Structures
1.
Amino acid sequence: MSRLDKSDWLDFALAQLAENGHGALKAQTLAAGLGVTRGSFYWHFEDLAAFKRDLVAHWMDRTTEELVRAVVRDGDAEAQLRGLMRRALRSGAALERAMRAWATVDAEVAQTVAAVDWRRIRFAEQLLAALGVSEAEIGPRSRMLYWAAIGRLMMMRSEGQELSDAEIEDLAALLSR
């Protein structure tokens, strides 16, 4: 096995979080899962608090900033809105549910989740503004879109409930009027 770097730990921890919840985020448990000693954990992270901060920041980058960067590459504002909706209304639910469950018992995690929520809403607002939606409608429409995406993620059985490309096109047109 090649030497692990910090991102290997963080990627594995996100997978464990999604599969087993925040209770699985222990140095010994993660080290065993990676087939290394606990010392490797402390080589990369000063302590559990530093690990948690890095993990939550890694989640934010993977689920929000990477999404924003991908959507921006989609083209003009109309294409970006459709791309955002396709990604937001079709993304996986396990990690989002696990992070939000963790946020119910950890104030620091809750603070980051709240910041991520607003970052995502603000991005949708920027797209709607670029499409010429009236200022009075931008906030309510972007929040509605976000609430729909999060609500879908919180459903325990959302398989087979995906919106088609045509349905997403129609909803994007409704939002951008």
2.
Amino acid sequence: MKLENVARELADSIGRNKVSTATEDLICYSYDVSTYIKRPDIVVKPETTEDVAAVMKIANREKIAVTPRGSATNNCGGNIPLQGGIVIDMVGMNKILEIDKENLIAVCQPGVINGHLKAEVAKLGFFYPPDPQAMDMCTIGGNIATDAGGPQAVKYGVTRSYVLGLEVVLPTGEVLRTGGKMIKDVSGYNLTQLLVGSEGTLGIVTEITVRLIPMPEARRTMLAVYDDLTDASVAVTRILDNKVVPSMLELLDKTSAVLIQNYIDSGYPTDAEALLLIEVDGSKAEVDTQIIKVRDICSSCGAREVRLANTPEEAEAIWAGRKSGFAALSAYKPVVLPEDCTVPRNKLPQMMRKVQEVAQKYDILIPTFGHAGDGNAHPHICYDPRHPEEIEIAEKAIQDIYKEAIALGGTITGEHGVGIVKKELMPLQHPELNLRLMAAIKQIFDPNNILNPGKGF
């Protein structure tokens, strides 16, 4: 069937106001934060699970590619419609359906913005910890697709740690329900956790059940300043060795601190080699004890200065710079590739040194900051695509960085996903048997390979 006929059938099935082939819409849905661009043929904006199921039945019958899309803040090309076809925009399904105070559960649709869910449950004294940097823009559905993390993952874990149940439309149009409100369930394979992190290749999430936790009573923030990047990296592991698990433990190298301070006055010293930004939370007594312990550990590891925030405003000033990191780098270079290598925590010093060596080797700007508490470094490859030689250098630098991460027992992605950008790196990390099993799972869920094809493998 011709695509214009498919568009007509989709409009007749779910409503003409939910289907578009207008050129301006197709252009808007052709890109995400990655450097890839590919225009779809049809854009669909469903409002219900039934809408999504109807779209998938038609697409599966006609063997037309379907690319799920949320806010498109992902930077691995996961939202790019490589084969054209249909982009299905889930942001309109954005209702919080239930906050169950008795069971500490929230149920929502995939288009709910992460920060909105956090704010709504906080009004009732609850806490939803996953906090990607784009949490004021990214959707819960997108967080599930990539198993998104964030600064608080060091203590609270990533998205999958909170997902208890899903409603998912399969590529065939069938509706699958997994899990529910129960905290424990070991009956059969854990399909919920299989779907979390599958990057929209196995099904389209239409409803999510997540667990909540009580809001911590208190929190304190500090900034530690180092003249040696290795000392700062060692302090990270020393803090955890001393049985303190901060709610956030972030590392910025000198280049990052300079560019951020030039962009927004966060009070970051620009002559230091590294900064540690640390938050502890819990009961007031626990927090008061832990922040002093962390201060003393940082000093013993060579910090030349330790600043304790004494007010919420001082704490917010410390974190404001970190939150604006990507924007600061983007203001300096036209293209910023936020890489996502994660290594065992005790290997972080080696990983940070390797990034510096790669930057020097290729004479390229690679500011690095990230979630040091869980070994997740974010080297940011900065270049100008108007100079072809810079593109080539950037690609070589990325290869060197990920080869080192794998050599240290790490991964090519801790929270951003594989998408298009990293699929060629998958064999570096995964043996052939692992890849064959993953491909077989994809085949079972999606026999016609129509759902987000070309991603991950």
